[in-house]
TrEMBL record:
It comes from Jannaschia pohangensis. Antitoxin component of a type II toxin-antitoxin (TA) system. It holds the Pfam family PhdYeFM_antitox. Transmembrane segments: none annotated. This is Antitoxin. Belongs to the phD/YefM antitoxin family. Gene3D superfamilies: YefM-like domain. The lineage of its organism: Bacteria, Pseudomonadati, Pseudomonadota, Alphaproteobacteria, Rhodobacterales.
Length: 78
């Protein structure tokens, strides 16, 4: 596994991240001491995600002022 020092990691971060995404993880070191390992994350599984589940939902006309009195009272208003 490739080890790069902190300065080189800052200078070449974009290129190093692209390499990690391509399956080449790397270690960032300071003064020769390994600090962190950088690896690509697994892609998120979005198969169970529900898109448009609020379709048809109705928003009340007074939505911006709903519960105004209770909120004001709860936070020390008159």
């Amino acid at each position: 596994m490739k080890t790069v020092n902190m300065h080189d990691a800052k200078t070449n971060l974009s290129r190093l991240v692209e390499a990690a995404l391509g399956g080449e993880p790397f270690v960032i070191a300071r003064a020769g001491k390994p600090l962190v390992k950088v690896v690509a994350l697994e892609p998120a599984d979005l198969t169970g995600r529900r898109i448009g589940f609020l379709a048809g939902a109705k928003v009340p006309d007074d939505f911006d002022t709903m519960g105004e009195d209770q909120i004001e009272t709860a936070f020390g208003g008159a």
